[in-house]
Amino acid sequence: MQRKTAHEIDQEAAEWAARVDRGLSSDEQSDLDAWLAGDVRRVGAYGRMRAIALRTERAAALGSAYRPADFAPRRSTRPSRRKLLLAGGAMAAGMAGAAVLGWTWYASGRFQTRKGQMRQVALADGSVVTLNTASLVSVDFSGRRREVRLLTGEALFDVAHDKARPFVVVAGMTEARAVGTSFSVLHLPGKAVQVLVREGVVEVTRTDEPTAAPMRVNVNMCAISSAETPRGAATALSVAAVPEEGVSRALAWRDGRIAFEGETLAAAAAEFARYSDIRIVVEDPALAREEIAGLYETDDPVGFARAVAASLRAQAEVSDGAVRISRPASS
Amino acid sequence: MTRVTDERAQWLGRFILPHEPALRAWLSRRTVGGLEAEDIVQEAYAKLTAMPSIEGIRDPRSYLFQVAKSVIATHLRGRKVVTITVADTDILDLADDEPLADVQLSDREELQRLAEAIAALPEPTRTIFRLRRIEQMPQRAIAKQLRMPESTVEKHVSRAFLHISTLLGRGGKRRNLASRSRVEVGRVEDAAEDSTRD
Question: CB distance B114–A83 less than 8 Å?
């Protein structure tokens, strides 16, 4: 057989990626397996092309109002954000039309995710919000500030620069204000709000302390804002440095993963409960206190439980809607 | 048998693909013992795809370079007659002259690039791809709406993947235009790349 050129292999890989994209029949699956087994370079070309195919799924966030002409290559080398801004504006203007197509979430300005779901939303100003599992935001850009309320859950905000209109995320009594930056906010019922800054600076204030100066939170820092108004002189806002790996760990959910490093098994089980209805049950208190580490897929609590059980010499048992981790009685 | 999981493909797209233009630029600056840069890139991807685990890879960029270098080294060792040129030993030394900056695209930048890549598709590939990815229509529905056979829709989707892979991975269409197009696609990392060149 003649050795194919890299380009020919790329072409075949793209054809396979397109077939996989619409779904393979079982015959086709074995054809794909056979094709991959034929040449190691095919594995590389296909892995790369599948990566492209999955990457392009994000284009859904561009929405119906996307106009290719706004992004067409020009002589200017820096078309960039301005164009995205314009497309965003068109998107806002097109909202009434979008509602007709059945996209009511655009019209209402509320965006939400179900448990286990993740979603990216392009906002009218060119900012992008990535919603983690079971989260709800409402967007209001009508006033002097770009206001997003994080009613519950977790979201990463990639904020388009606009000095004239600050971007404010409101989470309960906590407000995080940015001009152009990237930060995430975690707001779970009854827990402290966490504002983690990945890029730039964010100012955090509390509505119950209207006269206090805003707390400046720099890159790789996390502000923690208590769920209730503290009594006496206690402070509601504190800030902690987060090492860079810590930031990417905390944002691992964007890749559908959860990262642990020394959390207790009980805390890890609670974290998984945010993503899945399958409960992880640990009755043995000694086991619940065991510390765990590693990177796990958010949608696979059973896989997590099995991996953890194996490393802790315990067992994982799956029953209706739950997976139980326990140590064998004899040991 | 190698099965390519979606999880791995996601990882490749997120952490490796953004560094591919840098790798290609690095390869183009070297004589790599007669090896084609294309082949090296494909084999590097093959290794990254087939690796049992990607846990513990903290710096995907330098890891990609390392894997590419090991591909080159393997080929050089496998030769009957080895003509070692200065450039070859340079590679075998694994001397990393690349800045270690782990530049991750922000979601906004990434969406911007995607919007540009789709805009650059020829018609009717662009319309079909738009329906598939932005409107998220099934292939069959697109075929029905545009009154064409499903196989034609599929052909255009595969063409779109190929085009976009060239834009995102290669940072340009033709090799001799690579550096200029890289600037056009424009981002911090590429600027840094260029400044190291001259």
Answer: no
DSSP A230-252: PSTT--SEEEEE--HHHHHHHTG
Tell me, what's the ipTM?
Answer: 0.76
Q: Which 8-state DSSP code applies to residue A192?
A: -
Residue in B110, B157, B183 closest to A77 by CB: B183
**Torsion (CA) B185, B188, B192, B195 in degrees, nearest 10:** 60
Of B135, B157, B165, nearest to A48 by CB-CB distance is B165
Q: What pLDDT score was predicted for residue B34?
A: 64
Q: Do A255 and B14 touch (CB under 8 A)?
A: yes
Strand, helix or coil at B51? coil
Rounded to whole angstroms, how far apart are CA atoms A150 and A138? 7
Full set of structural domains in chain B with CATH: 6-92 (no CATH), 107-185 (1.20.140.160)
Chain-chain contact of A58 with B111 (C-beta, under 8 angstroms): yes
Domains and CATH numbers, chain A: 6-62 (no CATH), 63-108 (no CATH), 111-248 (2.60.120.1440), 256-326 (3.55.50.30)
The reply to whether B186 touches chain A by the CB within 8 Å rule is yes
Hey, which residues 119-138 in chain B have their CB within 8 Å of chain A? 119-120, 126, 129-130, 132-136, 138
Distances (CA, A) of B181 to A72, B24, B52, B173, B174: 14, 13, 35, 8, 9
Q: What is the mean pLDDT of chain B?
A: 72
Place of tokens 């074995």: A30
DSSP reduced 3-state for B94 = coil
Q: Which of A97, A98, A116 is nearest to A273 (CA)?
A: A116
- pLDDT by residue (tens digit) across A167-209? 999 999 999 999 778 999 999 988 999 999 998 899 999 998 8
Please indicate, yes or no, whether the overall pTM of this predicted structure exceeds 0.90.
no
B148: its two tokens:
């064409």
| Min Cα–Cα distance to chain B from A200, Å | 13
A217 touches chain B (CB under 8 A): no
**Cα–Cα distance between A164 and B55 in angstroms, integer?**
43
Please provide the average confidence, as pLDDT, over all residues in chain A. 82
Name which of A262, A258, A264 is nearest A304 in CA terms.
A258
Distance to chain A for B177, nearest Cα, Å: 14
Average pLDDT over residues A16-20: 95
Tell me if chain B has a CB within 8 Å of the CB of A85: no
Q: What's the average model confidence in pLDDT over A42-53? A: 93
Q: Is B157 on the interface with A (CB under 8 A)?
A: yes
Lowest mean pLDDT of A122-126, A157-161, B3-7, B168-172, name the range.
Answer: B168-172
